C-alpha cells in the first residue's frame, strides 16, 4: 500500500516560470558595489596575483575604467588607494591633493551619476600598515578618530557620495557624523563597516594593496567567535548615526547577517571579501566547480540571510550574468 502526501511542494517546481514566480529573493544590478584599486605612480594596470581578474589601475585610467563599468550597468564603486606616500599616521588621506582626494575627483568627473564611495581607513596610507595611529604597540583609538575626521572632510570636499569607514575604531561613526555636519555635509551618508571580523579571509587583499603589514588587527577588529557582540557592534553604529550597516566577511557569517537584519531596520550590506573571491577562482581554475553557479548561489544566500547590498569583486561578472538569465 502507498500513502500519498496531501501537500506537494513539487507542484510549484514543475516549470522554470513557476519557479521564478514563487522565488523569494532576487539579484538586481543595483544591489552590487564593485571595489576598485588605484595605485599611485604606475603607468599600466597591474594584475593582482592572488585575485585573478582584479587589477590595480593607474590614476590616468580610472576615469576610463569607470565609464566602461557605468556603460555595463555598474551603479556603485568603492575606491581603495594604494599609496606611495605613506607615513606613520596616513596624512596623505587628509591632503586635498593626496591620492584619495584625487581619485574621488577623477571619479566624479568621469561618471557623475555613478555612486562613488570611499573606503575611509589608514592601512593603505601608513608605513606600518595599521588602520590608525600606533602608540605603545597598539592603535590609539581616539587620536585615530581625529585623523579620520580630517580624512572624511577631505573626501567630502572632493565630492564623494558616501563615506565608508572600515577601521573598526570605537566611536568612529559619531566622530565622522559630527565632522561632516559641522562642515555642512549633512547630506553625505555613512556606510559603516559596522561588524567587521579579524579574518584570514582578507589575505589576498593585503596582496592587492601591497601592504607590508605583518601583525594582526585583533585589538580592533572582532573575534570571529562572537555573535552577540556582532549585533551590538552594528547597533552601536546605528545609534551613532550610520545610514547603512555592514557585515564582513560574508559566507562564513550568514548567521550574523540574519541577526543584524532582525535587530535593525537600516539597510544592510555584506562584503564578499578577497579570500572568498580567491577561493572560488582557484576552485574554478581547477575545474572542480562551476564558477557562475557558485557565485550566483553565494549571492542569493546573502539576500536570503537578509542583506540588501553586496560588495564583491564579482560585481561586473554578476551584472553581465544577470543579463543572460
Ligand atoms: C582596510 C580594509 C581591509 C579590507 C577592506 N578594507 C583589510 C583589512 O581590514 O585587513 C578587506 C577587503 C578584502 O579582503 O576584500 N581596513
Describe what this molecule looks like in 3D:
- The chain has a single domain, classed as TIM Barrel, CATH 3.20.20.70.
- It has 325 residues and is of the alpha/beta class.
- Helix 2 (59-72) packs parallel to helix 3 (99-110), helix 4 (141-158) crosses helix 5 and helix 7 packs across helix 8 (254-263).
- The protein contains 11 helices and 12 strands.
- The strands form 2 sheets. Strands 1, 2, 3, 4, 5, 8, 9, 10, 11 and 12 form a 10-stranded mixed beta sheet that branches.
- The chain has helices at residues 16-21, 59-72, 99-110, 141-158, 172-182, 203-208, 228-240, 254-263, 274-285, 291-305, 315-324; strands at residues 32-39, 46-47, 55-58, 76-82, 115-120, 134-135, 138-139, 162-165, 195-196, 245-248, 268-272, 309-312.
- Bound molecules: ligand PBG.
- The site of ligand PBG has 11 residues, from loops.
Q: Structural class per helix/strand content?
A: alpha/beta
**What is the mean predicted local confidence, pLDDT?**
96
Number of domains: 1
CATH superfamily: Aldolase class I
Q: At the third CATH level, what is the topology name?
A: TIM Barrel
* Helical proportion, percent range: 25-40%
The ligands found in this model are:
ligand PBG
Amino acid at each position: 500500500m502507498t500513502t500519498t502526501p496531501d501537500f506537494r511542494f513539487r507542484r510549484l517546481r514543475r516549470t522554470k516560470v513557476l519557479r521564478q514566480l514563487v522565488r523569494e529573493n532576487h539579484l538586481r544590478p543595483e544591489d552590487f558595489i564593485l571595489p576598485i584599486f588605484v595605485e599611485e605612480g604606475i603607468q599600466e594596470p597591474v594584475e593582482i596575483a592572488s585575485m585573478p581578474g582584479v587589477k590595480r589601475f593607474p590614476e590616468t585610467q580610472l576615469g576610463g575604467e569607470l565609464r566602461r563599468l557605468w556603460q555595463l550597468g555598474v551603479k556603485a564603486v568603492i575606491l581603495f588607494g594604494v599609496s606611495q606616500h605613506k607615513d606613520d599616521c596616513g596624512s596623505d588621506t587628509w591632503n586635498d591633493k593626496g591620492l584619495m582626494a584625487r581619485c574621488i575627483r577623477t571619479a566624479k568627473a568621469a561618471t557623475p551619476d555613478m555612486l562613488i564611495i570611499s573606503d575611509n581607513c589608514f592601512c593603505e596610507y601608513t608605513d606600518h600598515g595599521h588602520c590608525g595611529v600606533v602608540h605603545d604597540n597598539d592603535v590609539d583609538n581616539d587620536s585615530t578618530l581625529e585623523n579620520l575626521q580630517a580624512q572624511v572632510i577631505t573626501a567630502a570636499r572632493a565630492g564623494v557620495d558616501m563615506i565608508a569607514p572600515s577601521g573598526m575604531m570605537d566611536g568612529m561613526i559619531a566622530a565622522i557624523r559630527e565632522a561632516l555636519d559641522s562642515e555642512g555635509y549633512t547630506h553625505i551618508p555613512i556606510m559603516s563597516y559596522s561588524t567587521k571580523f579579524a579574518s584570514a579571509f582578507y589575505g589576498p587583499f593585503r596582496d592587492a594593496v601591497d601592504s607590508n603589514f605583518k601583525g594582526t588587527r585583533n585589538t580592533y577588529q572582532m573575534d570571529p567567535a562572537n555573535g552577540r557582540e556582532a549585533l551590538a557592534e552594528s547597533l552601536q553604529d546605528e545609534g551613532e548615526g550610520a545610514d547603512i550597516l555592514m557585515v564582513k566577511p560574508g559566507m562564513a557569517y550568514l548567521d550574523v547577517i540574519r541577526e543584524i537584519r532582525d535587530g535593525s531596520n537600516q539597510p544592510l550590506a555584506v562584503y564578499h571579501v578577497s579570500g572568498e573571491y580567491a577561493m572560488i577562482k582557484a576552485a574554478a581554475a581547477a575545474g572542480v566547480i562551476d564558477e557562475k553557479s557558485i557565485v550566483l548561489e553565494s549571492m542569493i544566500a546573502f539576500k536570503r540571510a537578509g542583506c540588501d547590498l553586496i560588495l564583491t569583486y564579482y560585481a561586473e561578472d554578476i551584472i553581465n550574468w544577470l543579463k543572460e538569465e
